[in-house]
Structure formats: structure tokens, C-alpha cells
Design a protein that fits this description.
four-stranded mixed sheet; two-stranded parallel ribbon; Double Stranded RNA Binding Domain; about 40% helix; 2 domains; Arc Repressor Mutant, subunit A; single chain
């Protein structure tokens, strides 16, 4: 008899200066970084879709290590993340997210460069979809991907958040 064990999802609101972002993690690691200034409904909708039936509990203590690294990033003390993650993804998504993680701090790439980086040059649209599915904004730096003409393109957190992150990285 198989026992269905659903992970418990722990969440908290990271509130630092003008940043207001919901975070969520399982026992394995960070699984969600929300959009700037979005209501808790965004987090709840995401957990309902990705972890149906899981218990969702507010726990600032469990989220402290993740919040600490994000605050260090916001303060200019961190350019990459050493925290653990709990991804629920396809192999293709993971390849894209790994390529995003290789984009140096303060630099940008275009979608076709990410497709080239994963040896799927014709998969530009699929790359865009995988980037859009990134559940851990900032920590997997999908904000560093721009349109072919260098203009900002869609971002789950909104273009205002993307602009804020790129400006934050370019100030250093």
C-alpha cells in the first residue's frame, strides 16, 4: 500500500525596505518566491496548483535562511544564492533554469542565447515558457533575460519588478 505523503509548505512575507515578497519552502528547500507587492492569493494559487492537498503554514523561522540571502542580495552583499531549493520541474525547465543561473550578475541575455546555451537553438519559444514557469524569482535570475532588441519583455513579477532588479544589479 502506497502512502501519499504531501510536503508541508511553509511560507512567510519578506518585508525589507520597499520589497514585499511572499516566500515558501518545503523541508527540502525554497520552492517559491513571489512577485513584488502581490497579495498572498498569488502564493495560495501557486501552492494549490503545484502542491494540491498540502498543508500550508506560516512559519517565519523556517523561512529565515532564505529571507536572509534575499536581503543580502537587496543590500548588495550577495550576487548568487547558496540556499537549498525544492524544484518541481521538467528536465527541460531545469536545463533552462541552470542556464539562467549562469548569466553573470549585472548582465543580461536574450532568449535565443539561452536556447543556444542548452543546445536547443530552435526552442526559443519553449525557453520563454520555461522561464515563465520559474517559481523562484530572483534566486534563479530570469529577470536577466531581455528581448532580442534589448527591451524588457514579460516577467512573472511584472516589468516594474524586473526593472528594479536590473537597476539594483547595475548599481554595483
Amino acid at each position: 500500500m502506497k502512502i501519499d505523503t504531501k510536503p508541508t509548505i511553509y511560507w512567510s512575507l519578506l518585508n525589507h525596505k520597499h520589497w514585499n515578497i511572499y516566500l515558501a519552502a518545503t523541508e527540502k528547500g525554497l520552492c517559491y518566491v513571489g512577485s513584488q507587492n502581490m497579495p498572498k492569493d498569488e502564493l495560495i494559487a501557486w501552492t494549490d496548483k503545484r502542491f494540491p492537498g498540502s498543508l500550508v503554514i506560516e512559519d517565519q523561522e523556517k523561512l529565515k535562511p532564505y529571507a536572509k540571502e534575499l536581503i543580502e542580495y537587496f543590500e548588495g552583499e550577495r550576487t548568487s544564492f547558496a540556499i537549498s531549493f525544492d524544484y518541481h520541474r521538467t528536465d527541460f525547465q531545469m536545463a533552462v533554469w541552470n542556464a539562467l543561473s549562469e548569466i553573470p550578475f549585472g548582465e543580461t541575455r536574450v532568449y535565443s542565447e539561452i536556447a543556444q546555451a542548452i543546445n536547443k537553438p530552435a526552442a526559443v519559444r519553449a525557453v520563454g515558457a520555461a522561464i515563465g514557469a520559474n517559481p523562484v524569482l530572483i534566486t534563479i535570475p530570469c529577470h536577466r533575460v531581455v528581448g532580442k532588441n534589448g527591451k524588457l519583455t514579460g516577467y512573472r513579477g511584472g516589468l516594474e519588478m524586473k526593472t528594479m532588479l536590473l537597476e539594483l544589479e547595475n548599481q554595483r
